[in-house]
## 1
Amino acid sequence: MRKPKVSLCMPVFNGANFIDEALASICEQTYADFELIVTDNASSDDTADIVRRWAEQDPRIRYIRNDRNIGAAQNSPD
């Protein structure tokens, strides 16, 4: 599998009110050679369901969920 030229990281915590619009904006860009890694810091709202739905529809999106809130500074992929 070929690696994308650009990796985008989107940390999120309880972002259900805006995540759908943010994902749509990223995915509708004219530049398409990217991967989007969404790291969820143990959201308690509908963030997980929304991001999982997007990830099922778009193979460029990868969803990582932390089991507990680890803070903003550490909520990024390794």
## 2
Amino acid sequence: MTSTVRKSPLPMVLTSVDVLSVRIAGSVGMAAARSRCNLVFSIRGVYLRGQNLAFLYRLPPMSDFTSATEHIAAIHQGKQDAQELTVEALARIDSIDRHGYELNSVIALDFNAVENSEEIKPALPLAGLPVLIKDNVEAVGLPASAGSLALRDYPVKHDSTIARRLRKAGANIIGATNLSEWANIRSPRSTSGWSALGGLTANPWKHPHSAGGSSSGSGAAIAAGLVSLAVGSETDGSIVCPASLNGCVGIKPTVGSIPRDGMVPISSSQDSPGPMARTVTDTALLLEVMMSARGFVNAAHSDFSPTIGFVKSWTTTHDGTNSLLYDTVAKLSAAGLTIVEIDAPTPDDSVGLDEFHVLLHELHDDLGEYLSQRCGKSLSSLADVVDFNRAHSESELHHFGQEYFELALELGGRGAEYLAKRTRNVDWASAMLGRAFTGVDVLIGATYAPAWLSNLGGSDDHSGASWITTAPSITGDPVGCLPMGITDGLPVGLGIVAPAYEEELLVASMARIEKVLGLGILQPSFLR
């Protein structure tokens, strides 16, 4: 059925930046149209400037689990258009994220999202597909706040390299995702998925449970079917954790392989942006764009048979997760893949403390440099952020403090102590992974137990985490996560580690494992 949008005196744009009400009348009549879809709906911060939105009459308010690859093929064939997909994504965000289930994964939307979709050439690799980015990555039209009120009044002036590459490839960056504030480096009592600016992101499987972090919103939005592609970032576990807890795919590539300008930093030695999606192929597609490289999608379609090292110490304290891990290893072996069991020591307390202190030393310097460039003298150091939080304690410090920020100020920046800690850690991690990679292509293990109950002010329950991300985070090696199965009604992920700059090997191995497991795209239960 076709319909037309009646030009009427009703305003298509409201000037309020908080709520835009779009009212559309058409030849099918308002009553009938309302019964087909919500022709009166609210989308925060989005301006629909007179576009022909007739297709809203058939707009489904439910999740879309179609892969990015399928959507792009349909656009290239003229069966879909980017404007339609953009408005559908915005409507899903309104009906699932803002209202309805109240997932709360999206912290901001671009005012010009629909208008921008009209300008994107459909022949481009991403064909105008709506994409979300984590709110610590600068993209004009979005806050890049790291979830903090401190950055709210410092608008983004330039796209980061990541955003430029996305737009050049035809991505329509429609919004930013919520995150653990400051990427979860503020307090030992912090709650993953909470930020002062964005509130608490829920888990799309069971609302009271954690979405993980710090790329909480990216993982939750992908798993919930709001969009098919999202950007996350990771220092140690911040892509892998939400991928595992929400039931999607994520890759942290080799540290330094993607430019990090315009990304709110923690650690130059461990930070990396990375792609999140629902399939390995889609994740590889976004990785190609972010790395400005080729070959990852082809690797995902190869029939590569990796020799897999199963690191027996990379397990969790959760019996159901460990059972799925052993079942996965058995399935991979039954499919003809060579499995080598590897005994590798878990890091002792000194390794963990050294890594943590290295992050704080680097945070002291790296965040200060970023702030001085973006904000000028009014907010130019970590100390300024600490002072801001104290001055706005009711909003910023109501649930938990900023003990890690204060410790970073006490430790100071890169000095002799920092160098000693960093050297010890790199020596340990390099030796451990060097031995583990002998004779195998990739390493696998469990990542996290199922999502714990969120407890604002009570800290996260990390007792079910494995050690899989520790060594590669220190060395900068790439790590991926894909769904391994469901236990206790919640997804858990399998972790895969590859040597540095071996992203093709990582993608090919992940794709083969995905094929063997045969889980398809997981669809969350949306249980309250």
